[in-house]
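Researcher: Quick test of sequence recovery. Tokens follow.
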């Protein structure tokens, strides 16, 4: 197996099934004894560079680093940094790499994290690059599916903005390594990008597509719901044409879904899930948030070489 020490985490395309399963196994070990890890990354520093808003990715990496005994430094608001004075992205990344042992980058441009990994000597973790990939979100999604016994022989429905959602792009790619069926439900203008559809076809992956959740809700075991990514639309009128086009309601699930259906969502959510569902056994999205810390602790420890 490719070693994790000093490895960049950029895209799910870079991972084998064996490697993903290993990360999930380490995360499970961390979950069983999180306090046992409290000093593993003493004297290590994680740099956080978020060129786009974030709550979960930024703060769960911070939390994970502190729980491992390490420290974080944060570029903070872009307008408060020397980027505001015209310093380039390249120079900024190179400078910060001299202050830290590894870095997490979120950026609106697809490929930004890969580019950063090529110009610095410390490991780079992609915290989301435009409409590209969000690999650490996918790892925590897979961890949740594993914990819920829904990572093999299940039908996973993926609903919403499949075109612009980087969490979907990473997740669909990773799920092709598992024995699952996939059902894609989306407004017609928000279909998966061609490169992913071509990958599915080339690898004989079983999938269905439709535009109405009511038609397929009874057939699926997991529903992964996404927000429409307003910030990615080049023409805002295209966003308003689809912004209220789907909503998962309690009455729909009670009347048509399997009793053990689970709902996942990378969050933040807006109006695509009825609020009444938050406190039902269907909803696992706040559990995903909790699991995200264990998964990120596992990744940080693997990259820094303190976990096997
Ligand atoms: N899921 C996720 O990436 O959330 P944030 O945008 O809050 O980091």
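Model:
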């Amino acid at each position: 197996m490719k070693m994790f020490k000093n490895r960049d985490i950029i895209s799910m395309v870079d991972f084998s099934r064996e490697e993903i399963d290993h990360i999930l196994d380490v995360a499970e070990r961390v979950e069983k004894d999180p306090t046992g890890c409290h000093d593993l990354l003493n004297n290590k520093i994680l740099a956080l560079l978020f060129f786009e808003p974030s709550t979960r990715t930024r703060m769960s990496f911070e939390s994970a680093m502190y729980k491992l005994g390490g420290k974080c430094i944060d570029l903070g608001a872009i307008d408060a940094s020397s980027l505001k004075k015209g310093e380039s992205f390249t120079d900024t990344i190179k400078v910060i790499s001299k202050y830290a042992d590894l870095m997490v980058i979120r950026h609106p441009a697809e490929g930004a994290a890969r580019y950063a990994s090529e110009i610095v000597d410390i490991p780079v973790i992609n915290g989301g690059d435009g409409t590209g990939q969000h690999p650490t979100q996918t790892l925590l999604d897979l961890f949740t599916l594993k914990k819920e016994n829904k990572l093999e022989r299940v039908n996973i429905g993926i609903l919403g903005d499949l075109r612009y959602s980087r969490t979907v792009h990473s997740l669909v790619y990773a799920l092709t390594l598992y024995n699952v069926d996939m059902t894609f439900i989306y407004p017609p203008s928000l279909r998966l990008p061609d490169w992913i559809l071509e990958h599915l076809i080339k690898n004989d992956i079983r999938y269905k597509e439709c535009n109405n959740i009511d038609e397929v809700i009874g057939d699926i075991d997991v529903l992964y719901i996404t927000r429409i990514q307003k910030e990615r639309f080049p023409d805002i009128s295209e966003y308003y044409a689809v912004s209220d086009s789907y909503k998962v309601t309690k009455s729909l699930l009670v009347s048509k879904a399997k009793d053990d259906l689970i709902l996942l969502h990378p969050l933040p959510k807006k109006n695509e899930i009825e609020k009444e569902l938050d406190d039902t056994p269907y909803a696992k999205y706040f559990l995903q948030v909790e699991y995200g810390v264990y998964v990120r602790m596992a990744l940080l420890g693997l990259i820094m070489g303190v976990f096997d």
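The domain at 12-133+292-303 is CATH 3.40.50.1370 (Rossmann fold).
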